[in-house]
Amino acid sequence: MTDTIETPTAAPKSRFAKFWDSDFAWSFRHSPVAIIASLVVIVLALAAIFAPLIAPYNPFDPATLNLMNGFTPPRTPNAFTQETFLMGTDDQGRDVFSTILYGMRISLFVGVSAVLLAMIIGVILGLMAAYFGGWTETIIMRIADVQLTFPAILVAMLIFGIAKGVTPPEYRNEMAIYVLIIAIALSDWVQFARVVRGAALVEKNKEYVQAARLIGRGSIPIMFRHILPNVLSPVLVIATISLALAIIAEATLSFLGVGAPPTQPSLGTLIRIGQGFLFSGEWWILFFPACTLLALALSVNLLGDWLRDALNPKLR
Amino acid sequence: MSLLTINDLTVEFPTRRQLFTAVDHVDLSVEPGEIHGLVGESGAGKSTIGAAIMGLLDRPGRIASGTIKLSGEQISGLDAEAMRGLRGKKISMIFQDPLTSLNPLFTVREQLVETIQAHLGGSDAEANKRARDLIDRVGIPDPDTRLDQYPHQFSGGMRQRVVIALALCTEPDVIIADEPTTALDVSVQAQILDLIKELATERQVGVILITHDMGVIADTTDKVTVMYAGKVVETGPTSQVMGRPSHEYTKSLIAAVPRPTLKLHRFPQISYGGRETRFAIEDMARHWPKVDNDTSKPVFEIRDLTKKFLQRKGLLPWDRTYFTAVDQVSFDIRAGEVFGVVGESGSGKSTVARMIAGLYPVDGGTITFEGQVVSDLKNRAALDAYRKNIQMIFQDPYSSLNPRMRVDDIVAEPIRHHRLMDGADIKRRVDELLDQVGLGHEAGLKYPHEFSGGQRQRISIARALATQPRFLICDEPTSALDVSIQAQILNILKDLQEHLGLTLLFISHDLPVVRQMCDRVAVMKQGKVVELQETNSLFANPQTEYASELLRLMPRLDDLSTEGLSAEG
């Protein structure tokens, strides 16, 4: 009933002021969880992006490594070199703090790229399924169903295995990251396709789509210019939550040894290296990368949760 | 002592930006056996009163002041537990949509028996007997079979009868009916209203009937309260308020109601609360290409038009079953006229419109536009040329505009698609159109949600006129609008036909509106045209039984004041 009140026409506001005043921004300002989560995400993302400037050491430059520094506990001077490290060092004397910063770079890069790729595939296929219906829809959605019957990890490992077989050995390490991205994206597009199809089926029957068809607009402009903007909010929510899942999936694959190579360790690779030393007392090699992964995935997930609530008019 | 007394009731909705007073110091009383109408346009606060009585205000709404008393006992401000005892037992409610107010997973018997036992207790046998009596009483034939069916097996009208039975099963003192017939066809509406009237007298129940429809009010209620912006503007016996309204708002509301008996040249432009918006038809006519309407020739010749929808899918053709929505329909539309198609829901009238618009492929028959067969056009250029001349105004102003597109882009889309102009010319044309429909060109920078229903329908009209079409299809263009806004939009459509020489196809279920708008009318039933006549002779002298039945069920509006109305001619 409130929607029929005429709001007095105020002086034109700047774009930022308009955004700041919107219900969306208001909901953000009143959610401590969302504020903290986004702060954590921003800090971690900035730390990853500017890793070369922040990290005290370059863990991938063999010239700076000193094996004598191996297994130094956090904030304790090394017995031989008297150097101290914020989070200690691993077996090869690499600074754990620096490797986390560089590892997070890879984790975030893989996660974001995989989600973007999954989103593009899923949105396009979902829109096509909803708009064309019939055989197109049946084929796309059956492929999606088949995809869902395999565990995502299995799909990723399969793709990874095939890629490893067909690429020449000298490219394997460089290819590994991209194969990882494709593997995660291919196991993740289904939920985008399903959500987009569901939302687009509703939008497709609305009169504005008929109005566009009446004007004579073709399928592609109607799908992308009319329907797509109206189904984007659930896509945004899924993308955020998938980002957390993709980061974890990457970590899992790397932990299993089929992901990022030890020369370019991601958080998952670091955890795999670290777990070998957990029971011999060198806990920090595992503990700090694991905490970082937890903080990153949890914050992104909480942000996605908040986004879902904020974009859902029913819960307002 | 009155049955239900509302004293100085104020309901507020504190929102983020402002405190919205939905109901503002309202007094109201209902006697046993009386039907009290609450009438007003959307946003007037009439449904909020119903919700406040039931203790079902949506959050964050609250009763800020005043009292609600039932048989002398105060019921406002009771706690949730006490309210639950009252709700359903002493006060029942009938909602607009009978489909969503019944649980689809339970049979009618289960729902009735559960409600009876929850409130009255008693054995299964007693409850079952009571359920059967009620179903019989509300006029559902064959109660023993029907009781064990599920809600989806009932038609809309029968379902609403079940809802009424459900509302009656605990012998309530008060029933609140919130738009009980808005979702139903005219013929069913009349039966449901008669039933409510009978039951109110028979059981001495006080009924609050909330509606926006003046016809329903005039036909059904004993007393009426007219609301505007949360306030009561007028209250009294129905015949007095409808026949001799004293408040300006009531007068404007009554004047805007389309009459079945009197064809007006234009609806009177009585406005209340500064809502009038000018529609600059003269400006528009000056820039419009001159059309020479040769009234003797048909614009459209429609022959044996048929549309089948797939009812059951199947891999093999012989496994599929079809439902014939439009069955060999033929008619001509003459240049410059307003051709009406009326019918109840499911009669196929919208399907005909959509086939003419080219939105649905044709399954049989031909559509000929100015001598050219257009029903099987494949050639892109020819199709575009046809589409440029045909535009459509849709029913629901809330879904016919893309919510994520700016208004100027919406209006410019047809111009851009047909490459009628470029760059700065498009902007000038769009500004001009928005000015002419009375929104002002600054409206172009906003999004559709910033406008009211009537304003959105004006945006739709601007979009439809952007390509300067010759033919306009109006599919129930005002059925989602308030009556005063409806009058404005209908006036605009009349202007378009008269000054721009547009030919209109006007689809509606509302006979009084059709009477006001159309030159000739086709009556459709179950996919067929059963009668086609000049409007005046159809209303005076219907030839078929179905048409006369429809006319008979039309709300009588004879009691309504005719102040400010002038007949055509």
UniProtKB/TrEMBL annotation, chain A:
Localisation: Cell membrane
InterPro entries: BP-dependent_transpt_permease (IPR050366), MetI-like (IPR000515), MetI-like_sf (IPR035906), OppC_N (IPR025966)
GO biological process: transmembrane transport
Positions of the ABC transmembrane type-1 domain: 104-304
Top-level taxon of origin: Bacteria
Keyword Coiled coil (UniProt): no
Residues passing through the membrane, by range: 33-55, 106-132, 144-163, 175-196, 227-249, 283-307
Family assignment from sequence similarity: Belongs to the binding-protein-dependent transport system permease family.
Protein name: ABC transporter permease
Species assigned in the record: Ruegeria profundi
Source organism phylogeny: Bacteria, Pseudomonadati, Pseudomonadota, Alphaproteobacteria, Rhodobacterales
TrEMBL record, chain B:
Xref: InterPro entries: AAA+_ATPase (IPR003593), ABC_transp_ATP-bind (IPR050319), ABC_transporter-like_ATP-bd (IPR003439), ABC_transporter-like_CS (IPR017871), Oligopep_ABC_C (IPR013563), P-loop_NTPase (IPR027417)
Membrane topology classification: Peripheral membrane protein
Domain of life: Bacteria
Any one GO MF annotation of this record: ATP binding
Biological-process GO terms, alphabetical: peptide transport; transmembrane transport
GO annotation, cellular component aspect: plasma membrane
Pfam families: ABC_tran, oligo_HPY
Recorded family membership: Belongs to the ABC transporter superfamily.
Protein name, UniProt field: ABC transporter ATP-binding protein
Organism: Ruegeria profundi
